[in-house]
Write a structure and sequence with these properties.
Number of helices: 10
Strand content: 25-35%
Mean pLDDT: 92
Radius of gyration: 21 Å
Structural class: alpha+beta
Strand order of the largest sheet: 5-4-3-6-7-8-9-17-19-18
Order of helices and strands: HHHEEHEHEHEEHEEEEEHEHEEEEHEEE
Bound molecules: S-adenosylmethionine
Number of strands: 19
Number of domains: 2
Shape: globular
Amino acid sequence: MDFAEQRQAMVAQLRERQDISDPVAAALLAVPRHLFVPGVDPEAAYRDAPIVTKRDEAGRPISSSSQPAIMATMLDQLGVEPGHRVLEIGAGTGYNAALLARLAGPAGHVVSVDLDEDIVARARGHLSAAGAARVEAVCADGVQGYAERAPYDRVIATVGVWDLAPAWLEQLGEGGRLVAPLDLRGMQVSVALQRAGDHWASRSVAPCGFMRMRGAFAGPEASVVLRQDPELVLGLPEWREIGDVLAALDAEPAEVAVDGGEAAAYGPGVSLWLALRDSRCCVLTGRLGRGYGMSVGLVEGHSIALLGGQGAHVAGGRGPTGPGLAAQGHGPGGAELAADLAGHVRAWHEAGRPGVSDMRIHAYPGHAHGDGKGTVIPKRHTTLVVTFG
Ligand SMILES: C[S@@+](CC[C@H](N)C(=O)[O-])C[C@H]1O[C@@H](n2cnc3c(N)ncnc32)[C@H](O)[C@@H]1O
């Protein structure tokens, strides 16, 4: 298969699983992703997977070409039209910037900003190899946006943000739209926001999982490495003291079945429900049971409870024994945490199992926050009000 055929196969596969508009599909068909990840097997470049391109000293990924599926979702949320002026925060390989340039056409303009000079230099090289040298790749901390080319019709962050930077909102022109992977108490959603009088309101919300922004605007989210090999990492909305959770995970769990819950049917909706309702929420990622994965739950002191298949034992490497969903509590307070966790999931079922796309997010500048309905999440520069279910 030549590269064009590989792109066709990738787009056809993506379109089997999600709606993709014709302009975004055409951009994916036109822009050669393999030129943005030199050194990677071209076949791998056309798989629907993220490709890590830079790690820090500790081996954590700090730059990548994102998964094409989420890129397509976010490009459709953004709705770039011919002639648009677009700002991207997180140039990475330059691939998304090239897609943006394709959508904005010759009358449009794309600026893409990244924190590291080496990343930007490589992105420029990739962009010119792909015939998209008109994209302006700039080395800067994206928190400032890029005032030199403002106002923009569209601003997109392709890196996880904890708060909305005032510069992005200020640099958007009349009718402008911002799309960003936004933190909601440790969980992430890709939200498209537009002005609504005194604040910004979501027009669409989708599940996503991006590496987090570095630099001055990094958020307080914490990753606690419980174990190096095999890796087990506990994600918390912000750092707090936890006990010996790893020892607790080794013990046989106390299991509470979740009535009516099929393990296969639970998705990002329930994770967000939990994050918005319980400050003890956590996400465990790494080698869980028999494979690599992630599980949401509650953590407190030396105890943790996690959602999983009935009969599964996260650290013990045992897969689920039944199709049902269960809360597994580990440690001295594990049984109580598991009961609380099962209660949250039950409430989510009773509320009609709202999905991420049922969520509405309002972002108020400063500390104002609307009519008091919904979960209020104060950030540094904005206050989010989230309604869900
Ligand atoms: C997931 S990658 C972006 C993928 C990219 N859009 C592509 O198509 O390859 C996230 C990028 O955000 C960058 N980044 C992290 N913090 C940043 C900041 N404060 N300002 C600008 N870029 C930042 C990282 O260096 C990384 O390259």
